[in-house]
Predict the 3D structure of the following.
Amino acid sequence: MSISLFMSENKDKVGENGASGKFELHEPQIRPAVEYVGETSIHLWKDSINILAIIGEIAEAVWYAMKNPRKVRWRETLYYMDVCGADALPISCMICFLMGLILGFQASLQMHKFGTDLYVADLVGLSVVKELGPMMVAMICAGRAGSAFAAEISTMKVSEEIDAMVTMGFQPSRFLIIPKLLALVMVMPVLTIFGNVVGIIGGMTVGVYSLGIPIITYFNRTALIVTPRFFTEGLIKSAVFAVLIAAVGCLRGFEAKNDTHGVGAAATSAVVSGIFLVIIADTLMTYLFSRF
Amino acid sequence: MIQAKDLTVGYGDVVVLENLNFSIERGEVFVIIGGSGCGKSTILKHLIGLYEPMKGDILIKGESIVKADWEEKRRLMKSFGVLYQAGALFSALTIAENIALPMEEYTKYSEKEIMQHVNEKLKLVGLQGAGPKMPSELSGGMKKRAALARAMALDPEILFFDEPSTSLDPVTAAMLDRLILDLRDRLGTTMVIVTHDLDSIYAISDRVIMLDKEAKTIVARGKPSELRKSNPPPAVKEFLERAGLSRKMD
């Protein structure tokens, strides 16, 4: 195990020792485009390396956890399950219900023109279960859990708790990442199931009250079209999103600079990177699921 | 016990301290002093294996912590405890859980035995009954003592202290100094302390090295009481005479 990942920014800390820590005011400069592209490329390259490094750390920590389940910090895992799952349930359900309602309403406007009102159930059911349910829950979790993980770890870094952990001979990944990762992987699919159900109910509300479709007809159509395979696809996506959100949240925390700005920047970056990775992963998985 | 050989440390390409050579004996209270920004904490973080030096080697009990892989480093780290400047107690755990953590990880003690040891350590630092409290419920001095109890959880042979008296009132700082000496006398623990608190330096140190920001190296070494008498360089003299300490020494 390498501790370099957890200590990644130490070597930039010139100012503390006053060696070159002067405050200088610079005139704003228009940087040449080439310089900007170069810097961004280097940043992206370093970021990719760090993401690969953290995936390696996580894989090692997961392997250790599987071999030594008693060494997993289950109490912390339960705590994060509560925070990321139970506490996120109301907002997840609310957003998924409204999303189903909006989707149903928009679909009903178009479908009604062609006399295909019942197909609103198809559109809402498939969209929610395959895409929007897992995606909306992932967005909520990236905003709540991803940012919280980054802020928590970066604050621990500022208060030297990570240093203390390392000098006690502990792997920060095992203590700080695994409980969060396990918790999110366990609760996000459950949140997605709830989200799917209330999303479909949202669409059903429009179907029943706006289009006059009987509840049982709408329900039967949804049950016919949403097969276990589609349902499972959505849950697999949700579990993959959970890994990405937890990993990038923790990574941003470990990468944070040792100051208050660093904590804020880490939380922001965790949300942005989390959402970006979720969308990339969704694109890939949608393509893969369509091929098999 | 600890040896620094031709050690050069810094950040990025910037050298903070270079060509440091010193050794620390078993059971000694060794103090690293110097003005703010001279690299005291930096050298400490290199000694405990957090940072890698630019050049040179650090031996702990004859083994290089610089060249050690993670497993070897982990083994070496078990032989020492570190008291960080702000305590660095895990804020999500109670004081008792903080102290119990290293024992849960490295020993085969039962839960009951661990609690027994935790209470012993708390008693040693004068914090009986503080076990169930969260770190945020403690004062600065209590946090430092709780962190010391955690650092001593595995009865280490070496204890490192990063600015132990920072943010403490003089009475609490003096109490911590007494505690350090008491522990050394009772347990024979080697103490490595980074500080710029002159009272502490004179009260507890067996030997000191003084670092200088401009010279980027050790500018004085020896027993603190002898240092002043030996006509040291102006920077050292100025440092040691601050706060009317010359009177105290005379």
